[in-house]
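ok trying again, last paste got cut off:
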Amino acid sequence: MPKGSPELTQARKEEIINACEKLYQTMGFKEITMKDISAATSFTRTSIYNYFQTKEEIFLALLKREYELWSGSLREMMERTATMTKDEFAAMLAHSLEARAQLLKIMSMNHYDMETGSRRAHLAAFKAAYGESIRTVEACLDKYFPEMTAAQKRDFIYTFFPFMFGIYPYTFVTEKQRMAMEEAGVNYVFMTIYEITYNCVRKLLGE
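nice, full thing came through this time. structure:
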């Protein structure tokens, strides 16, 4: 890592992550190279290696930021809202993920590659953000549904978080996929991020 202020180091990391995010809007994970990312920044590819050794580490940092933004939005909601019904909570959680489609896209399509292609320090930093998102959802359950038992809250967490990995593939379907499903006779019903998340959360909370 080159010498410099923490602010400069963070600013350069953010520039690299932003470049990767912009490329991901029009290119696939496998298509994007370190050369592409460096071309979208103000410094050389060699300089990038001072901060990230692989594109997987850059994507993992992007996913970490997405989790942090999602957790932040949930905490802001908790500060604004004293009580919620089960319907209101399901709607709130659904809207929060509707605003973070990129979070769902990265986690569903490239999560394994990112983790295996990143050094332990980067992975640990990501896991910290991931863990904070779990604790934030747990805090929401504690606040809005104090009648839930510890076992019920655990079941909610360990059902909802794995469920999140499947949201994007079920809500973003290419024309080729649509045609293939029609040819295969698959009765596919299109649902939005909001709809599929709301339905899941409402069922997990029960009557």
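cool. The chain has eleven helices and no strands. The chain has a mean pLDDT of 93.
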